[in-house]
């Protein structure tokens, strides 16, 4: 049996009822056999990046981030756009990730769940630049836009709509295929 593929999902929103976090959690429920999806749970606990603190011993929350990134064979990011860019908390996470090198040559994709077509485009364009600096491999065929409105999230906190789940599942499959290639 081949080794399981590990996927780390990161939500760029700290809202408890976030549609992006709901999408990340939905990925966990859609992981097929041989694929383990985990949602990173520590973005809000990370300190603001101070490069002088990127030294041993690392802040425990940063060590946790880097261990989960190292565990992952690929990353999927679900993020809202704030003021025309990537939310500061997600940018801070990515800045910490750059110093550790765990993202280098790692396949990465995003799922843009903005409700209106073309929304959050600037965030994803800036994310593309950040991910390039981090040395990731952007898996274009796994990057999808699929609207997830707030009322599309069920009482269980997961995306309920079947067609939306199908698109999310296909994105996950494309990312897993890129890892296995
Ligand atoms: C401070 C702030 C700035 C925002 N700026 C933008 C923006 O520039 N472009 C956009 O499309 N949406 C913007 N939004 C809307 C959010 O991206 C939108 O509400 C998103 O669905 C929230 O995702 P979540 O449910 O995962 O928290 C902004 C929201 C906030 C709170």
How does this model look, in words?
This protein is of the alpha/beta class and 181 residues long. It is built from five helices and six strands; from the N terminus they run βαβαβαβαββα. The chain has helices at 19-30, 60-71, 88-100, 121-133, 162-180, and strands at 5-11, 35-39, 74-78, 107-112, 137-138, 144-145. Strands 1, 2, 3, 4, 5 and 6 form a six-stranded parallel beta sheet that branches. The protein is globular. The two termini are 16 Å apart. Flavin mononucleotide binds next to helix 1. Flavin mononucleotide binds at residues 13, 15, 18-20, 80-84, 114, 119-120.
The set of bound ligands, ions and cofactors reads: flavin mononucleotide
Quaternary structure of the protein: single chain
Largest sheet: 6 strands, parallel
Round the Cα radius of gyration to an integer and report it. 15 Å
- Secondary-structure element sequence? EHEHEHEHEEH
- The percentage helix is 25-40%
Q: In angstroms, what separates the terminal alpha carbons?
A: 16 Å
Work out the helix count: 5
Beta-strand residue percentage: 5-15%
State the low-pLDDT regions, or none: none
3D shape: globular
- Averaging pLDDT over every residue, what do you get? 95
Structural class: alpha/beta
Please tally the β strands and state the result.
6
């Amino acid at each position: 049996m081949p080794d399981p593929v590990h996927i780390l999902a990161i939500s760029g929103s700290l809202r408890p009822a976030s549609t992006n976090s709901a999408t990340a959690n939905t990925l966990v429920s859609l992981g097929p056999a041989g694929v383990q999806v985990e949602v990173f749970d520590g973005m809000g606990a990370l300190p603001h990046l101070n490069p002088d603190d990127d030294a041993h011993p690392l802040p425990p929350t940063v060590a946790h981030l880097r261990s989960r990134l190292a565990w992952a064979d690929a990353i999927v990011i679900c993020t809202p756009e704030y003021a025309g860019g990537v939310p500061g908390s997600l940018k801070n996470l990515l800045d910490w990730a750059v110093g550790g090198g765990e993202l280098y040559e790692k396949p990465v994709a995003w799922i843009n769940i903005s409700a209106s077509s073309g929304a959050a485009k600037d965030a994803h364009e800036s994310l593309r630049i950040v991910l390039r600096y981090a040395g990731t491999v952007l898996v274009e065929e796994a990057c999808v836009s699929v609207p997830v409105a707030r009322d599309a999230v069920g009482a269980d906190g997961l995306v309920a709509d079947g067609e939306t789940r199908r698109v999310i599942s296909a994105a996950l499959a494309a990312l897993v295929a890129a890892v296995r290639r």
